[in-house]
TrEMBL record:
Keywords: Cytoplasm, Methyltransferase, S-adenosyl-L-methionine, Transferase, tRNA processing
Organism ancestry: Eukaryota, Fungi, Fungi incertae sedis, Zoopagomycota, Kickxellomycotina
EC number(s) per entry: 2.1.1.211
Subcellular location, record wording: Cytoplasm
GO annotations of cellular component type: cytoplasm
GO molecular function, one term: tRNA(Ser) (uridine(44)-2'-O-)-methyltransferase activity
The family this protein is said to belong to: Belongs to the TRM44 family.
A Pfam family that the UniProt record links to this protein: AdoMet_MTase
Biological function: Probable adenosyl-L-methionine (AdoMet)-dependent tRNA (uracil-O(2)-)-methyltransferase. Adenosyl-L-methionine (AdoMet)-dependent tRNA (uracil-O(2)-)-methyltransferase.
One BP term from GO: tRNA methylation
Reactions that this protein is recorded to catalyse: uridine(44) in tRNA(Ser) + S-adenosyl-L-methionine = 2'-O-methyluridine(44) in tRNA(Ser) + S-adenosyl-L-homocysteine + H(+)
Leading EC class: transferase
Protein name per its UniProtKB record: tRNA (uracil-O(2)-)-methyltransferase
Main location group: cytoplasm
Length: 456
């Protein structure tokens, strides 16, 4: 099957030199993007392949990106793009053709729109677009060398770059195409795996449900000085993931699990979980203004914990960015057994603290950030306390996004000696953080003393 590409109707939107990467590296990236459109179009939930056929006809490229009329489609794919908001945004069928020309390889994307269907908001506002790989001797702006390019057949002349946002979209795409193609040459393997503990579809459905129920209200009525767009959406995402995790566990239980959130901060996570039918409470050193907006049914307690003395009778212990309490949570869980039942825990580490409450430092290691070294430290502690540990990279707007899930192992009782040694060390070394309210009072008193000294 052949298709004509007319230079007069296509425009180069972005391009980049790709060095000595080869055609196969480009095709490998395009194959992944074809099968998983959600990787480059965030509002897409999934990609459904309807047809995928190949044709062995090919020709040698000459490297001239002149959109010749002599070319061959070596692969044709018909796919459906399924949006995340199924009830608001339409699905769209799309044809993808991998075309070999004497210029190189083109991956051409053409939306199939009916007479009355408009281009959905999540799709580029073009008749069609293509990713191009042009081999050595190419002629993009008369420069030599291997090239990557994004070209499009526009709805109207220059309509693809009328705003700075549109320009940024195409620049971001060419950067990603360049990065993925270049790293493909070195056999790059993704280090971060999402959706290991909780499936993507299950989590996404719950997140959309909770976002529709709670996001608008709290963004518009957030009483704190912090940015609600960060905290509200992040806590909704964390609550969605936790609920999905607990629903997996609930299959073997008759009742919903209970919880405590240590270092609960603004308390929104506790409020969301309570609102979804899970009984639990939160503890933090200081109360927040927003606590009073949750109503009497949300149990939030202002107190300073002594972690080596603290126990709790709940099914789960949560520590979301709980700072110096994070390394203590596995030990707290290991000594909080009730009727031979130990609680599980979920911690999302942030700033690295050791068991004394002091900030931790780590030696520099190639390929390892300080954050991931700290995550490994918490995982090791939890294992030594007798817990089976799983890690999940959460889909939240934060670089500190690793959730560590601990569930009691069969030999947890045999680890009691290690837990007791942690408690002994804590009793000697742990120093609780001074509450912010006291710090503020100390600062105010110093300011008052300074003012009095100046007037005397």
């Amino acid at each position: 099957m052949s298709t004509g590409l007319d230079i007069d109707s296509w425009r180069i939107l972005a391009e980049a030199d790709i060095g000595d990467s080869e055609e196969c590296h480009f095709l490998s990236v395009i194959d992944k993007w074809i099968r998983e459109a959600e990787l480059i179009i965030p509002p897409i939930k999934s990609t459904e392949i309807i047809e995928d056929t190949s044709n062995s006809i090919s020709s040698e490229p000459s490297g001239d990106i002149s959109f010749p009329t002599t070319n061959h489609t070596v692969r044709h794919v018909c796919r459906v793009l399924v949006p995340k908001r199924k009830n608001k945004d339409p699905t769209i069928q799309e044809h993808v053709d991998i075309i070999r020309t004497n210029a190189g390889i083109f991956a051409r994307f053409t939306p199939q729109l009916g007479e009355t269907m408009e281009i959905p908001f999540y799709y580029p506002k073009v008749h069609e677009f293509a990713f191009a790989y042009v081999e050595s001797g190419g002629n993009i702006h008369h420069e030599s060398g291997c090239k990557l390019a994004i070209v499009a057949r526009e709805l109207n002349p220059r309509s693809t770059t009328t705003t700075s946002k549109q320009c940024m979209i195409w620049k971001d795409l060419i950067k990603r195409l360049y990065k993925w193609t270049a790293t493909e040459r070195f056999g790059y393997q993704k280090r971060v795996l999402h959706d290991v503990v909780v499936g993507y579809d299950v989590y996404t459905a719950k997140y959309q449900e909770l976002k529709a129920k709670y996001a608008l209200h709290w963004v518009e009525n957030w009483p704190e000085q912090t940015d609600p767009r960060k905290f509200v959406y992040e806590d909704i995402a964390i609550a969605s993931w936790i609920i999905c995790l607990w629903q997996k566990e609930q299959d073997s239980r008759k009742k919903r699990p209970t919880f405590v959130d240590l270092g609960c901060g603004n308390g929104l996570l506790v409020h969301l979980l309570n609102s979804e039918g899970f009984n639990g409470f939160g503890i933090d050193q200081c109360s927040r203004r927003v606590w009073g907006h949750f109503g009497d049914g949300v149990d939030l307690r202002a107190q300073t914990l002594v972690p080596y003395e603290f126990t709790v009778d709940t099914d789960w212990i949560i520590g979301n960015h709980a700072d110096e309490l994070v390394p203590w949570i596995p030990a707290i869980a290991a000594r909080s057994s009730s009727s031979a039942r130990y609680p599980g825990f979920i911690v999302i580490p942030c700033c690295p603290h050791d068991l004394s409450g002091s900030k931790m430092t780590f030696p520099a290691m190639a390929g390892q950030s300080k954050y991931h070294l700290y995550v490994n430290y918490i995982v090791d502690l939890a294992s030594k306390c007798g817990f089976e540990v799983e890690k999940e990279y959460l889909r939240i707007p934060s670089t500190k996004n690793v959730a560590i899930v601990g569930t009691p192992s069969a030999n947890i009782n045999a680890r009691r000696t290690f837990v007791d040694s942690l408690l002994h060390t804590g009793a000697q070394d742990f120093v609780a953080r001074i509450p912010d309210s006291i710090k503020n009072e100390i600062r105010l008193e110093k300011a008052r003393e300074k003012a009095r000294g100046q007037t005397e």
